[in-house]
Amino acid sequence: MSDMIFADRRDAGRKLAEAVNSLLARHPGIDDPVLLALPRGGVPVAWEVARAIGAPLDLVMVRKIGVPWQPELAAAAVVDGETAQLVINDEVVASANMTADEIEAAKAQQLEEIRRRRQLYLRGRAPVPVEGRDAIVIDDGVATGATTRAVLKAVRLRRPRSLTLAVPVAPPDTAAKLRREVDHLVCLQTPRVFYAIGQFYADFTQVSDAEVVAILRQSTGEA
User: Fold this and answer.
1) Given Cys at both, which of 40, 179, 183, 217 links 207, Cβ 3.0 to 4.6 Å?
2) Signal peptide: which range, if any (predicted)?
């Protein structure tokens, strides 16, 4: 079977919504969902799911801490919440000889960026309560899974009743690892040949801050 190519993130979201609806039908106990999107790319995907299942939409903010001379290589990730969560990739930290002080300094810098983005996107809106509810984390895809694992750990600490990860695409090995981190995994495809998430989108244009703000306003009936 050939790999599925999504027209854009909205198209992926509509297809993902069908799969999430199927999950809800199979598990009637998941009856109080709240969607947590990773900005920016996960927001248009999650909005289509939110509209389809009638669930509130919020953000889960995460920032990667890269190796100083190779920023795209994640040494750790920090996630906001009542208590900021730091998830360290021990293997990368060791190979890069990064010190605890370097990681702490980078953590402080990324938390400041998270605060800036939360204010920009949500304009002071209070977070949607997660405790005791069915949290569904959504992104436009997963590659290595390092950032996603950090997010899932942080969301678990908010004590949801259940935790689901829903994504359009992920490599098979990453999907298998993430499945152990959640109660339910919804992944539309796990292609063996995987170079980058954008490989599975006809249009993978970067989502702008303005688009994120517009979607969130629409989700609360402000637009």
Assistant:
1) 40
2) none
